[in-house]
Amino acid sequence: MDEIHITDQFADTDQRQVTEQIQGTGQIHMDIVVPSYRLNAHYLQGIIALPHPEWLSVHYYIIADNPLLSIPPLIKAAAENNSIHLHLNQCNKGASVSRNEGIRMSRSPWILLLDDDIIPADDLLFVYAAAIRKYADVIGYAGTTRFPPASNAATAAMQVSGLLDGYSVAEKQKHLVWSSSSNVLLRRDRMDKQLFDGKFAAAEDIDFLTRNSLQFERRYIAVPEAIVLHPWWDNGALQTRRMFHYGEGVAQLARKKPTNYYIYYDLPNSAETLLVLSLLLPLAWWFNWLPLLATLAALVLLADFFVCWSKTVSQGKGWSPLVAGSLLWNKNCYEFGRLFSHIHARYWPGFAQRIDLRFENTYPPDFPVDKWKWGKMGLIAWGVLLWVL
């Protein structure tokens, strides 16, 4: 298998090709970059075998990010007959760095980023190619990533949590600041050359794609018909680690330019409130306030549960306390991840700090009105009043 060398700089984009595509003529050249830790031939075969129009030239770059795995025969054969470019990382570098390697290896003006565990629609490349022919003067296109119907309490809670919104935002908005990197088409000459930040625990796609959007003062064009199906992670199990890392990633966004121009302050969330209460433990023990502190902690979690239950019911997921409990778990894992990241970075202004992931207006106003947040505070106040009386 030929060694594929990674250049330090971007490959030069053929401006003639881009100009022809803007004018709606000429062959379109597209590279598909797929970082893969699993090298699951079932999923990768569906990606490699995607049909495409005759006037679309496609090249595949599969970045294998697990040196301990043996290469499946189908993938090995595809690499040996030059159907794909396969690069083996000598150590696990993470999806961000692997995407960067694939982008730097590639040469085409258009780069399609896909996850390694998605099932693309048969017409995916036809839809993207038609979008380029229609309007190529863009920074990129955002496709739709759908998930199967909820199969248990954990997956129903994921739908309610809002974590999946970034995957399907192309179905709700026409112009986007960012989208999930599981299905996004980028124009090479309109990418921030720093690419993905490998230091991010998660949310690195928000960081990179938002940097592009702000730097070039453009938004991604939504292509909702460009559809891939994403299975539930870990067969629908609770995503404790994923939610914690996502909280860490969002905290990193709040500390990094240019996304830190979109921070604001809000009331403390459950994780922050419980941290304050835990710090007050010595004082509460000295003044015999431990019953009050324990009551406040219980009220915070109880109010949180009722708010999660209300959200579950309002979004049509039924009255199941299991869904509400799963949503509460996801929410608190996310909040503790964000709090942990700020403490680990010794970033003390991060307490009660939030970031507007819509990235519409810099320095949004503090303490925005939110019925769920104020409802929770009302429940806590009511509980304290009952305890005092």
How would you portray this structure in words?
This protein has 389 residues and is of the alpha/beta class. The chain has two domains: 15-237, Spore Coat Polysaccharide Biosynthesis Protein SpsA, Chain A; 245-388, no CATH class. The chain contains 14 helices and eleven strands. Strands 1, 2, 3, 4, 5, 6, 7, 8 and 9 form a nine-stranded mixed sheet that branches. It has a two-stranded antiparallel ribbon with strand order 10-11. Helix 2 links the parallel strand 1 and strand 2.
Provide tags for this entry:
single chain, 389 residues, alpha/beta, Spore Coat Polysaccharide Biosynthesis Protein SpsA, Chain A, 2 domains, 9-stranded mixed beta sheet, two-stranded antiparallel sheet, 14 helices, 11 strands, elongated
Gist?
The chain has 389 residues and is an alpha/beta fold.
Q: Distance N terminus to C terminus?
A: 77 Å
Order of helices and strands: HEHEHEHEEHEHHEEHEHEHHHHEH
CATH class categorisation of the largest domain: Alpha Beta
> Please, what is the oligomeric state?
single chain
Overall strand count: 11
Average per-residue pLDDT, rounded, comes to 92
CATH homologous superfamily classification of the largest domain: Spore Coat Polysaccharide Biosynthesis Protein SpsA, Chain A
> Which strand-content bin applies to the residues?
15-25%
According to CATH, what is the topology of the largest domain? Spore Coat Polysaccharide Biosynthesis Protein SpsA, Chain A
CATH arch. level architecture of the largest domain: Alpha-Beta Complex
Q: Structural class of the secondary structure composition?
A: alpha/beta
Low-confidence stretches: 1-12
What is the total domain count? 2
Question: Treating each run of at least 4 consecutive H or I residues as one helix, how many helices?
Answer: 14
The geometry reads as: elongated
Radius of gyration: 23 Å
User: Largest sheet, described in full?
Assistant: 9 strands, mixed
